[in-house]
C-alpha cells in the first residue's frame, strides 16, 4: 500500500509499539498453535492486570517513547535515586520474609511495592547477565565453529 | 553438527527462534488496523481485536482513518466511523445481546456511561433490535433528527463514500418513525406527512431507494 501524501494523519497509536513487542515476544516464547486465541488471552490477561494494579503497558510504553521527544523528562534525577533506595529496601525485605516470626512493620501495600521492585530489579539483572553471555558467545562463536570444523 | 545437538534451554542467537509462518501477517494486519482505527485505549481495543479474530467475528476496525480525532476530548467519543464499525460487527443479527454489545462498545474505547445514557432513551432488557440501537447512536452523533438520518444513510448505504448514500425507503421510514416517536416534540401527523411527501419522490424513481439529496437538501430550503 502506498501512502499518497504526507503521513501527518497516519500515526501509530501511543504505546502500540510496546504492546506489539510484548505480544511478539510471548508468541515466540510460547509457540502457540492458535495465535489469535493466544493473543486474545494475552491481552485479556493484561487487561485484568491493569484493573488490579493500574499498570497499563501501553501507557507505560507511551511514556517511554515520550522521553525521546520531551527531553526535559530526563531532567528528573529522582527516579534514579529512588531506584537505588528501593533496591536496598527490597534487599532487607526479602530477609525479613525469610524469618517468619518477627513482626513485620511494612503494610501489605508496601510489601507488594517492594515485591514488585525486587522482581523488576532481578529481571533487569538477569537480562543484563544474559546479554553479557550472548556477547561472550557471539565473540566466541567464530572460533568455536572453526574448531568444530577442524574436528 | 550443531543441529544434531539437543536444543539448549538458553537462547543464544536469533536463528534459534522459530517464527511461526503466519505470525508476520497477523502482526502486520494488527498494526494496520490499529493505525486505521486509532483506538483511544490501545490495550482494551487490542483485546477486542484478537477476541474477534479468534472467534472469526467481524473485526473492530475502521475502513479508513477518521479525521476529527483531535476533538475527541470535547465530544462523547462516539463518531460515525465507530458506529459504522459497530454496525459491521452487529448487523448480521436482527437483535443484539446487550451484554455483548456493551463489550463491543468497551472494546472500541467508548465510555460505558454513554452506552447507558443511550439505552435510557429506549429502555429494554437483555437485547435490542440492532436497527434501533443504530438509530439511537445516530441521534447521539448529530443534533437534529435530520442530521441523525444523514448519519444513518451514510452508515447503511452500499454506495461508495461521498456518493448519494442511498438506503431502502422502508428502512429510512422505519428509523424516522422510531426516532420521531421518541421525540415527544414532533406530532405524529407531521412525521407521516413528511414521509408521504418523501414517498412520492421515491415512487417516481421505482428502485425504492432514498438518497441524501432527497431529504437533506430539502430541509435546508425550508
TrEMBL record, chain A:
Keywords: Membrane. It is found in: Membrane. Its main location: membrane. It comes from Suricata suricatta (Meerkat). GO terms for biological process: binding of sperm to zona pellucida. Sperm surface zona pellucida binding protein. Helps to bind spermatozoa to the zona pellucida with high affinity. Might function in binding zona pellucida and carbohydrates. Residues 14-51 form the RIIa domain. GO terms for molecular function: calmodulin binding. Residues 75-98 have a biased composition (Basic and acidic residues). Pfam families: IQ, RIIa. This is Sperm surface protein Sp17. InterPro entries: cAMP_dep_PK_reg_su_I/II_a/b (IPR003117), DD_CABYR_SP17 (IPR047579), IQ_motif_EF-hand-BS (IPR000048), Sp17 (IPR012105). Residues 75-115 are annotated as: Disordered.
TrEMBL record, chain B:
GO terms for cellular component: motile cilium. Its main location: other. It is found in: Cell projection, Cilium, Flagellum. InterPro entries: ROP_DD. Gene3D superfamilies: cAMP-dependent protein kinase regulatory subunit, dimerization-anchoring domain. Keywords: Cell projection, Cilium, Flagellum. Belongs to the ropporin family. This is Ropporin-1-like protein.
